[in-house]
Amino acid sequence: MGLILPLTILMLILGTTCGAFGKRESKVKTAIFLSPKFELGPGSVANKYDYDIDFPRGHIALKSFNAEVIDELGNPVPLHETYLHHWVVARYYEAKHVATHTRYDGHRELHQSGHVMVRNGGICQRDVLGQYFGLGSETRGTATDVPDPFGIVVGDPAEIPEGYEEKWLVNIHAIDTRGVVDKLGCTECRCDLYNVTEDEYGRPIRSDYKGGLFCCYDESQCKLREGFEGPKRSLYLRYTVKWVDWDKFIVPVTIYILDVTDTVKIADDSSGVVLEHNCLTEYDVESCSSGEKECLHVKRTRVPVQKGGYVIYGVAHQHSGGTGSSLYGKDGRVICSSVPKYGKGKDAGNEENYIVGMSTCYPRPGSVKIMHGETLTLESNYSSTHGHTGVMGLFYLLVAEQLPFQHFTHPSRSSFFTNINTLFS
């Protein structure tokens, strides 16, 4: 059966789950939406920013967000045809008098003063990695559920500035690898395969930059096998959101995204000591020498966090070649380890040689705590039998300031506002 249009599909399925330690029955709502259409031909790249996407509204607690790329018939598209480099979903406030333009290609984003980004809890500089949700090739096989009675609270009228309304955007970065000469090289955005020496803004790419986001921007083209021809096709990101309406029994969690490329400097200003983060989001893995017994590239960084809490959920994000990532406390204890699952076949969700899932951490509430001001160690491991370009070593955490028995009233929460223009700079 063909995909039913209009392109936004909404299915509300009301279910019942036990909430807040038996004090109430919370009705989990589920909605399935489609992003605006994007088109890809063999070897081509889409890096789209869609604003004011369909999303649950009101004062709610988000419980899960999953996504996958589908074709016009609603069929899941395998990674060996369209590689999902990443998708991210971010939250922003828009002045009510501002007219929304919903589609922006590449990094050409909104430039009106009537928009402010509401970023996660940090900790990277400015609005780098400021999204609420985001995954890549591992999307279909990675759990994202937030356990009861916790939730990611959004839509609080008390937090939305007067004259503004809350909206959401999605960035979809997908690479069509049908007919390319080197599938892995194209997904790792090797500059020589894209035949580029300038970024999307026309700025020269430095000579030692072998591959990464600067070389596989929107509408760029990876090298095809000679004579290969194939049709363009229309694709969509189908995303599923689960949530519950806000009530006093929900315990809010804060989102933290850590980056193994982060280098932290301590500086002083008029307000005291300031931590200056420099998250690069991507890095290269050099191939090991033939004499090495173990071809494993280990990258580590030490990251101080100003605000701690109880870890409720954790998961890493890696690219092909990744072997796992771990987050350690100051005393060396393991806060969370997350390892990739590689596919073994051809079907969507089980594609051979692609990461199709990441293991997650769901500690018993109260059993894993990060102290205020604690310095954490993040480690990201990749196989270096072959070199890799543009890989990532991110770690996504949900942290609660309080446990349920401590949570009698909604704690005060502050939003992190930044200019939306540099969200993914």
From TrEMBL:
UniProt keyword annotation of Signal present: yes
Alphabetical list of InterPro entries matching this protein: Stress_up-reg_Nod19
Keyword entries, A-Z: Signal
Signal sequence, renumbered to the chain: 1-19
A Pfam family reported for this protein in Swiss-Prot or TrEMBL: SURNod19
PANTHER family in the cross-refs: STRESS UP-REGULATED NOD 19 PROTEIN (PTHR33390)
Protein name, UniProt field: Stress up-regulated Nod 19 protein
Origin species: Phaseolus vulgaris (Kidney bean)
